[in-house]
What does this fold into?
Amino acid sequence: MALSSPATSTASAPPRTTRGLLPLLLAGNTAMYALYIGVPGLLLALQIEQIDPANKVANFGLVSGVSAIFATIFNPVAGALSDRSGRRNPWILAGGLLAVPVMLLLGSVNTILLVMIAWCLGQAVMNVYQAALTSVVPDRVPLAARGKASAAVGLGLPVGSTIGALVGAAFSDHYRTGYLVFGAIVAATAVLFTVCAREERMPPKAPMPVRAQLGAFGSALKNHDFRWAFIGRALLILGYFAVAGFQLYILKDHTVLPAGLTPEEAVAVLMPLNSVAMVVSTVLGGWLSDRYDRRKLFVGASAALAAVALLIPAVSSSWTAMLAFSVVNGLGFGCYMAVDTALVTMVLPKAEDAARDMGVLNIANAGPQIVAPFVASLIVSLSGGGYTALFVVAAVLSVLGALAVRPIRSVR
It folds into this structure.
């Protein structure tokens, strides 16, 4: 999985939006995020723990990190292939249908190496699905409706996260069946999308040479304000995913849960709380930052709030502390992502290269997700298996992310 910013395009608007496209975009993204949260956040963690309980943290970090590298490489490749074909629906359908046999394979393996290979295949088919689905908005939605389309896409994360946590918890004792359920959800949604959202073949797009892509990356980061926005986003995302990826193990080994509440059930409680808080702060933060015309203030404050949230479970291992962490972290992260995305659009180096430079920013989203599992497993191992040090390091990263917006000059 790679978090991405809403698509930005300076191209001419499509002539019309497909009827009923926005609910289909919500459904497509919800199914994708349900699998992305439910599989690695619960089922994969349980499977790895069952195979090798003593080394679960290191093994989970390895599997997550390698598969994230695979996803990051495969996403632009899949996007380029769909660009060259001039079609999105066949790629959405293919990726969605292939999720079923790949999830079946993932549930049937019983060594760490095979789990890693199977989950890399899972990332491959899901990134075929994701790359094509992400391109639907700039392809088919008129500029005047992009805000609504971005909202539909954005809501897929909290809604899908909640569904993923609930389904994952429901099948925690039968993870093989759980894998198939997630695969079936994505496959059914892919069929629904491609049947209901008909498309016209678009002119094939010429792929950008690798040298030109590297030159674009370097050119964007030469801009002072954009560079600091990139650094701030990378630090915040690294701190967030260093903890988020190990949530189940944190609940198993760090948190004192109430009698009768299993760690899997705890995830199913925490994720909806986090999602609701994220939705509230996304809407409220975006509205307030518009009203007061202050982006840096809200970005810095929300990153600082995320740091405060991370310190709550560092000083207390109680269930109440985890509940508070989930709510406060959702408030901070949701507001940050909403306002920081607006801030970034204001510091883009050139208007004519807006889409390209937003793609560069996505490296600040995807790159830290690759590094986070390795960093987290190393911190936990060096600290003797405890998670307090992980919370503290993640909080420090969030504070640094808050401070990174201060040097930006062109935005208040």
Q: What stands out?
A: The radius of gyration is 20 Å. The chain has 15 helices and no strands. Residues 219-412 form a domain with the Growth Hormone; Chain: A; fold (CATH 1.20.1250.20). The first helix runs from residue 21 to 51.
